[in-house]
């Protein structure tokens, strides 16, 4: 506004000068002055007292109109006085405008101060607001993200009603899911680890049991120790081993057969059942049942292997004796036959002379040859006995069946122990003793019935009895069969047994008594 007043005042001065000296410039000066006056506007404000200034402005416009009217009428001299008043009005407006401007500057300064204070307050408010609702929640979210990275989920999320709150809710849900997932994975890993450790322990246990059952001769103390180990490993309260022989091998936990809640695991291999494992479980888990089943399989295999070993030994022993019998037949038997023929030729030659002493000597030689031949025949019969069955009763039934063909006498097995464990040496000697006694009864007793029995007494002794209903037998060295009885007694001595030949009212009883040394079963019962 001040520059407008200055232009108007300058135009008034130029107009006075032109009115006096150069009228040609008046149109241009009027045009410039009116242009300046056109820019000037009346000030209106409710905050300031601008009425005096506005009145001066109206007066100035009025004076200019009068001056313009005189100029247009060509009365330039009359306009000089009005120009002086016009100039004075402009000069009066300058202080008014200055005062009004100062008042406005004060207001502007006050407004600027207020704006600065408000801006400062807004900045402070935004700072604390952003710190509380943006920076702090974001920092907490960053800390939570680091904690989640370190698998830690025990923390609080910020609660905000803005986008950060939505982000926090999302991270909260994500952390809950991650915690569940991680916890589940850890539990699964821990469970699998425990299962692997348990499986490894079970494998080590079964390997140890397998070594005990297969690396040494199977005896009942070994079975007793393995049963105790199974009881501890499978957490059993009762445990015992029941074999088909009727014997029980008890563990230190006592036998389970008398308990109604006891379970039975068959000891089976290749379709053959050797017995049962009786037990009472404290733990009904599937792992425990699998362990017991595996243990039963190992015991079955050990029993099968032991039976197979015994059978192999017996077969080897019989094959060896068969070789010996063949060698005896091919050598000594032929030599005895040759000597017998030579004795007959010699007796014929000597019979033509009268020499009683020579004839007596020849008779003695023939008797010795006959005795040697009888003993050789008995040995050949013994060595050629071929009974491949490993079970004693099965082997005896096979032998008796062959003897039934040779006689009309009825041969029966009564009071016979179903399972009778023997060593290969016992197996052969017992069969030979029973065979010799039965053959003697068939040949010499003229009996109708022969009964063979085998029992084990409470004193742990084996009683084998061969009873016939024939005419009896006398233990006389001059009788035929004397050598068979002698061989029977020799075999009984090798067994550590007592052989008795007891005459009965009708017939004879051959009784063999010896201690039962069952390495597989008996020692187990002694350990209980």
What can you see in these coordinates?
A hairpin with a 2-residue loop joins strand 8 (498-504) and strand 9. This protein folds into three domains: 2-119, Four Helix Bundle (Hemerythrin (Met), subunit A) (Up-down Bundle), CATH 1.20.120; 198-305, 2-Layer Sandwich (Beta-Lactamase), CATH 3.30.450.40; 314-517, Histidine kinase-like ATPase, C-terminal domain (Heat Shock Protein 90). The longest helix has 74 residues, at 76-149. The chain is built from twelve helices and nine strands. It is of the alpha+beta class. Residues 476-481 and 519-528 have low confidence and may be disordered.
Q: What Rg do the Cα atoms give?
A: 69 Å
CATH topology of the largest domain: Heat Shock Protein 90
Spatial sequence of strands, sheet with the most strands? 5-6-7-9-8
Structure annotation, total helices: 12
Helix/strand structural class: alpha+beta
Question: What is the assigned CATH homologous superfamily of the largest domain?
Answer: Histidine kinase-like ATPase, C-terminal domain
For the record, what CATH class of the largest domain applies? Alpha Beta
Mean pLDDT: 75
How many strands in all?
9
Rough shape? rod-shaped
Total domain units? 3
Q: Which spans of ≥5 residues are poorly predicted at pLDDT below 50?
A: 476-481, 519-528
Cα distance spanning the termini: 130 Å
Q: Determine the strand fraction and express it as a percent band.
A: 5-15%
Q: Helical residue percent?
A: 55-70%
Largest beta-sheet characterization: 5 strands, mixed
């Amino acid at each position: 506004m001040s520059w407008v007043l200055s232009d108007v005042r300058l135009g008034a001065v130029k107009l006075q000068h032109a009115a006096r000296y150069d009228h040609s410039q008046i149109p241009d000066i009027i045009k410039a002055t009116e242009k300046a006056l056109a820019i000037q506007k009346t000030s209106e404000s409710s905050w300031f007292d601008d009425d005096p200034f506005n009145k001066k402005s109206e007066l100035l416009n009025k004076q200019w109109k009068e001056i313009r009217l005189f100029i247009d009428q060509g009365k330039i001299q009359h306009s000089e006085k009005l120009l002086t008043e016009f100039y004075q009005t402009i000069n009066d407006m300058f202080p008014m405008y200055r005062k009004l401007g100062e008042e406005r500057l004060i207001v502007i300064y006050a407004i600027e101060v207020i704006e600065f204070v408000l801006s400062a307050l807004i900045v402070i408010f935004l700072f604390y607001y952003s710190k509380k609702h943006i920076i702090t929640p974001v920092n907490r979210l960053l800390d939570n993200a680091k904690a989640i990275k370190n698998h830690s989920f025990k923390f609080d999320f910020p609660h905000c009603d803005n986008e950060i709150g939505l982000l926090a809710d999302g991270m909260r849900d994500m952390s809950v899911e991650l915690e569940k997932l991680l916890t589940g994975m850890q539990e699964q890993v821990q469970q699998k680890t425990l299962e692997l450790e348990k499986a490894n322990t079970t494998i080590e246990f079964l390997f140890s049991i397998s070594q005990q059952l297969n690396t040494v001769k199977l005896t009942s103390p070994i079975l007793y120790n393995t049963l105790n180990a199974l009881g501890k490993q499978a957490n059993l309260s009762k445990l015992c081993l029941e074999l088909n022989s009727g014997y029980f091998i008890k563990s230190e936990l006592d036998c389970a057969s008398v308990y109604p809640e006891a379970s039975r695991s068959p000891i089976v291999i290749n379709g053959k059942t050797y017995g049962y494992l009786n037990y009472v479980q404290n733990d009904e888990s599937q792992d425990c049942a699998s362990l017991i089943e595996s243990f039963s399989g190992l015991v079955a295999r050990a029993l099968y292997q032991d039976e197979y070993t015994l059978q192999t030994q017996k077969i080897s022993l019989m094959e060896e004796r068969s070789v010996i019998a063949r060698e005896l037949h091919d050598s000594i038997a032929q030599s005895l036959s040759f000597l017998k023929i030579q004795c007959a030729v010699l007796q014929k030659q000597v019979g033509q002379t009268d020499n009683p002493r020579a004839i007596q000597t020849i008779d003695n030689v023939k008797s010795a040859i006959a005795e040697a031949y009888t003993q050789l025949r008995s040995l050949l019969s013994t060595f050629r006995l071929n009974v491949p069955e490993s079970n004693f009763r099965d082997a005896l039934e096979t032998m008796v069946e062959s003897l039934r063909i040779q006689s009309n006498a009825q041969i029966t097995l009564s009071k016979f122990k179903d399972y009778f464990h023997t060593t290969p040496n016992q197996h052969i000697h017992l069969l030979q003793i029973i065979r010799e006694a039965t053959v003697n009864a068939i040949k010499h007793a003229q009996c109708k019935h022969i009964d063979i029995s085998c029992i084990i007494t409470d004193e742990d002794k084996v009683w084998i009895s061969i009873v016939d209903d024939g005419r009896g037998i006398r233990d006389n060295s001059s009788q035929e069969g004397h050598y068979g009885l002698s061989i029977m007694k020799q075999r009984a001595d090798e067994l550590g047994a007592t052989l008795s030949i007891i005459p009965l009212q009708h017939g004879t009883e051959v009784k063999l008594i010896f201690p039962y040394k069952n390495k597989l079963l008996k020692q187990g019962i002694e350990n209980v």
